[in-house]
Design brief:
With 149 residues, the chain is an alpha+beta fold. The chain is built from five helices and five strands.
Length: 149
């Protein structure tokens, strides 16, 4: 009797749409460039740099920070370290999606406006975060992060 009940319980879980729905949501990536931009905006605002850089799909990307030169192509771990160093000592105020534009069939860019505060200093500051993307099979892949004051 226990085996039958255990088998029925397992069948009920397997037949339930919830596990399949949860798996689909967990693996779903933004399809449109605007969705990719809004996802990046939300991740930056939370300071979730791993999620912010996740659209790079583990590939190399270019990073340019204020006052610096464009990096050679670097991996997401190194890009995350550069960005973490850049935001250190600041607090996010707001991050807004200014534009998401498809340049051609393979490229697009997203423009984010960052408002932030230097810890211990009065007043807000602004920076632009430009993200370069290339079109993958089903998603937009992040290839460049450029931050300008």
């Amino acid at each position: 009797m226990r085996r039958i009940l255990a088998g029925l319980a397992g069948l009920a879980v397997a037949a339930s749409p919830l596990p399949r729905f949860a798996a689909a949501v967990a693996t779903q990536s933004p399809v449109s460039l605007r969705e990719a931009g809004d996802s990046a905006r939300a991740a930056w605002e939370r300071r979730d740099l791993a999620t912010f850089l996740a659209p790079a799909k583990g590939g190399r990307l270019l990073v340019t920070l204020p006052g610096g030169r464009e990096s050679a192509p670097i991996g997401p771990a190194q890009a995350r370290a550069l960005l973490a160093s850049y935001v250190q000592g600041t607090e996010e105020v707001t991050t807004t999606l200014q534009a998401a534009r498809v340049v051609d069939s393979l490229q697009g860019y997203v423009e984010l406006k960052r408002r932030y505060r230097q810890v211990g200093l009065p007043g807000d500051r602004e920076a632009m975060i430009l993200l370069g993307f290339r079109r993958g099979r089903e998603i937009w892949v992040l290839t460049e992060v450029r931050i300008a004051p």
